[in-house]
Amino acid sequence: MKVLVATDKPFAKVAVDGIRKEIEAAGYELALLEKYGEKAKLLEAVADADAIIIRSDIIDAEVLDAAKQLKIVVRAGAGYDNVDLEAATAHNVCVMNTPGQNSNAVAELAFGLMVMAVRNMYNGTSGSELKGKKLGIHAYGNVGRNVARIAKGFGMDIYAYDAFCPKEVIEADGVKSVASAEELYSTCDVVSLHIPATAETKNSINHALVGRMPKGGLLVNTARKEVINEAELIQLMEERADLKYMTDIMPAAHETFMAKFAGRYFSTPKKMGAQTAEANINAGIAAAKQIVGFLKDGCEKFRVNKK
Ligand code: 3PG
Predict the structure, then answer these.
(1) Are 219 and 245 spatial neighbours (Cβ–Cβ below 8 Å)?
(2) pLDDT in tens, 53-67
(3) What span, in angstroms and rounded, lies between the C-alpha atoms of 118 and 178?
(4) Residue to substitute in 34, 59, 98, 271 for testing ligand 1 pocket (most ligand atoms within 8 angstroms of CB)
(5) Counting atoms of ligand 1 from 1, which one is nearest the CA of 97?
(6) How confident is the model over 118-139, as pLDDT tens digits?
């Protein structure tokens, strides 16, 4: 059996070593394809793979067609919007994610971006503090919960909205549950996005919603760029010079944001919320273990596509 690690944005070496150990201990072979750039290289590498570990790498019908022996794809991470689930099911391929394994890393970066924004991008001028500010956590999943935990240390007043998580679960963490996204944005000085990119959420962070934020509002996005209605956010930030947008997922309109919103917009060049050795080790080794469990025992825990 051959397990391919196909990561255009590579894991830390220590994580790859850990993945190799798991795979080889199970008697399988590990192949590594990093920084491949072009899809053609991925198509070639998947040809004899029985299992694939990926990050944000695109697994579409063409890749699945090329992977004739493929049985399982594990997205080492949370969001699996990069995998065509229907095509995987049609190809009889199991798709899993590794929920929770990289969520602390993403949550810590959200605070890195928040501090950078309230300290005026570290430009030496007098900024403000997070303590006492109202923080809105948009979606209370694994990352949202870590954000709440860290926000307590900062002394923030914490609110959350999640369409699927029961109010009792949110409030058990000492977080105020609000009834709608609208209420969250109207209430909070800072909103941190932790929603997945789905048909319902794409473009949903728009003028009407973000426009509800109080004066000096800060939007932090470590989720997905697709959830932002970029044209409307640009329009809103043109109308309101007090709003700031910080992200580690570069918008399609990055150049426009840069040109128009100097000092109140920042994006990292690459998505880097989960780019820590710890997150790579946790998610990578979990992915390797899930593959071994699936191939040896048929374990389908964390399967995200239909059979
Ligand atoms: C995730 O969905 O797990 C995060 O967005 C991290 O993605 P990455 O593995 O591409 O950094």
Answers:
(1) yes
(2) 999 999 999 999 999
(3) 24
(4) 271
(5) 3
(6) 999 999 999 999 999 999 999 9
List alpha helices for the chain, DSSP H: 13-25, 39-45, 61-66, 85-90, 103-118, 142-154, 167-172, 181-187, 207-210, 230-239, 254-260, 277-297
On average, the pLDDT of the chain sits at 98
C-beta 55 within 6 A of ligand 1: yes
Would you place residue 240 in the very low, low, confident or very high pLDDT band (cuts 50, 70, 90)? very high
Question: If you measure from the C-alpha of residue 145 to the centroid of ligand 1, how many angstroms do you get, rounded to a whole number?
Answer: 17
What ligand 1 atom has the least distance to the C-alpha of 103?
3
| pLDDT of 73 | 98
Ligand 1 atom with the smallest distance to the CA of 272 is 11
Looking at the whole model, is its pTM more than 0.70? yes
Structure tokens at 111: 């605070």
